[in-house]
Amino acid sequence: MKTSTIAALAAINRRFYRDHAVAFDRTRDRGWGGWETVIDHLVPALDRAAAVAEVAAAGTVSPAGTVATPPRILDLGCGNGRFAVFLEESLRERGSSRSGSKPTFGVLGVDESEELLGVARERCAHLGNRCGFQRLDLLSWLGGETKPWFPGTLAAAVAFGLTHHIPSFALRRQLLARSLDSVVDRGLVACSFWQLVDDPGFERRRASWIEHPAAFGVDLDDLEVDDHLLTFGNAAGVAGDAPARYCHHSAEAEIERLIAGLPAVEVARYFGPGGADRCNLYLILERSPR
Predict the structure, then answer these.
(1) ∠ CA 127-128-133 to the nearest 5 degrees?
(2) How many CB atoms lie within 10 A of CB 51?
(3) DSSP string for the chain
(4) Among 49, 12, 48, 9, CA closest to 172
(5) 110 HSE (CA, 13 A, CB side)
(6) Prediction pTM value
């Protein structure tokens, strides 16, 4: 995919989240059921990262470099911060197998939308300095124009509700690769792939690349298979004035290609348990030793 097409598709979503952040936030007020399984794997990953940090503090050099203390999680495309809240509540209930109390952790949430980051900061204010949010141009980060975040020092990196907004196979693969570069050995990368063509509302919300004004300027011949333009909420795709987003459907065959050759072991792949989450395909990878 050409750089100009990537920029045009990204601009569609940038405008959407700038103009409709409040409405979007209202529809994203709770966690996803599939996150419970993520946290099943995340708790031991936090413990492992804490153990590595303790060894490093004692003077032994870690093969993964300096480990963030407390163990830190990178939340890519964090939106309104709801994963950080869900994580805190879940860990408070579960506790830690190592210490007998809940794991100590930090979350860095990054997103392109200043509007949603403002919501996230307010929502997570009670977490204090355990949670921070910064604006990040994700496409620049994936393209190598922005330096990596804490390379090799994080316990985990997560990306929920993000992969379908990343234009081009190459950048979706880079999302996984750079996430794996960010975590310690045996650190986790967890992400979701919205199986949007299986969503009951897909056909109703699918908009025409030719007719919808949001797509003006996009080179339609450069689109990849399963690139779609979807209206938001209950608006039908035929409504030309309905807000629309660029979304990509990653079928399982594509996911196999995305992870092929990456320095990781797949530890889980599953669909969300119900509701809207049943169309989310979750993938959890564990970073192989460097």
Answers:
(1) 85
(2) 13
(3) --HHHHHHHHHHHHHHHHHHHHHHHHT--S--TTHHHHHHHHHHHHHHHHHHHHHHHTTPPPTT-SPPSS-EEEEET-TTSHHHHHHHHHHHHH--TTTSSPPP-EEEEEES-HHHHHHHHHHTGGGGGGEEEEE--HHHHHTTSS--SSTTTEEEEEESS-GGGS-SHHHHHHHHHHHHHHEEEEEEEEEEEE-GGGSTTHHHHB--TTT-GGGTT--GGGPPTTEEEEE-TT--TT-TTS-EEEEE---HHHHHHHHTT-SEEEEEEEE-SSGGGGGEEEEEEEEPP-
(4) 9
(5) 17
(6) 0.90
Smallest CA-to-CA distance from 87 within 26, 133, 43 is with 43
Residues β-bridged to residue 271: 281
**Residue carrying the six token digits 């690349």:** 209
Single-letter code of the amino acid located at 79: G
**Tens of pLDDT along 170-219?**
999 999 999 999 999 999 999 999 999 998 889 999 999 999 999 999 99
Q: How far is residue 166's CA from residue 143's CA, in Å, rounded to a whole number?
A: 12
